[in-house]
Amino acid sequence: MVQKIVDVTSSLNAFSKQNQVSFFYVLWRFIICYLKGFGLKEFLSYPLLYEIPANLIRYREYSIFEKRVNPRSTGIVEFDKWIQSCVWKANNIPHVKTYGFMGPRASVYQLGERTLVNKKISEVLELIPCPFVIKPAGGGHGDGFDIVDEYDKQSNIVQLRSGKRISVEDFQREYFSKCDWIFQELVVQHETLKQINSSSVNTARILTATNEKGEFILLDGMMKFGTAGSMIDNMGAGGIGCHIDDNGKLSKGYSVNGNKIFECHPDSGISLTGITIPFYQEVIDTVKTAHSCLPRPQFLGWDVAITPNGPVIVEVNSFMAVYVNQKHDNGYRQTGLKEFLEG
Q1: How, if at all, do strands 203-210 and 165-167 pair?
Q2: What is the dihedral of CA 47, 232, 251, 247, to 10 degrees?
Q3: Which of the four pLDDT bands, split at 50, 70 and 90, describes residue 341?
Q4: Fold designation for 191-341
Q5: Which of 108, 217, 264, 326 would staple 209 via disulfide (CB 3.0–4.6 Å)?
Q6: By the 8 A CB rule, do 130 and 73 touch?
């Protein structure tokens, strides 16, 4: 408890300096917001220093209704990134090609129409063209994400884009002996998005819902861009988010860390406001079709990459950092989520 108080105090002190506001004023506002149901991350992310927008959905509130609308009634099948890719493939939905997965108990690799099981990582590395993506099958927030740039069979060395050079034996032991990992194709993104930031695949986060009648509801869209050479576009890792309007056009960018507003991307200098997302209607059509293939979850967040040929689903999320998505419009309470909150 003491350490938690110290950590909160340190965060509030840094926040007061960033915003050039008295620490005691920040502390007072945080206590008020906390008593109204907001946590520290929300206080540091939202503009709550002077007022509390009435339409903000609190994280605690979201946590309760998310469990209700996305019941964990999956039976024996865990809906991880590998299972997701199998669902998209079975229903001919555009998605990032997933070569297979490997973990402590099993591995699967798909070679055309052939399915190979329980192969060693050395065998798999000979089959997958570099570069390709590796990430935990059940992870989130970009944790563990890396790219295998090269496999030298002669030296038995794997080169990762994070800078790590590792032997195949250590690769097998350090990664695949603890949890399941998936192998995915590295997406070639549309030139419009690549020009803004080329270090990561920049993705659209689309929030969708289906009501009790099974009707599709498009709730919100946000474009995420990586920064400063990061391989991922996650806002928790320093990325930038831009609201996407109904016509597929971007607003100015914003960050979670530091509450900064960006008229231009900080690295490329390209103006963000008014840029039209390529294939945006196809993005919406893709997630609408994909959501219709899932019988139970009603509220989902889709990460969609956009290639020169159109959109591909990267992954779908049931539980999200909703405070990130609400930053640009002061809350979702009066959107299509209202009926879920009151249900």
Answers
A1: unpaired
A2: -130
A3: low
A4: D-amino Acid Aminotransferase; Chain A, domain 1 (3.30.470)
A5: 217
A6: no
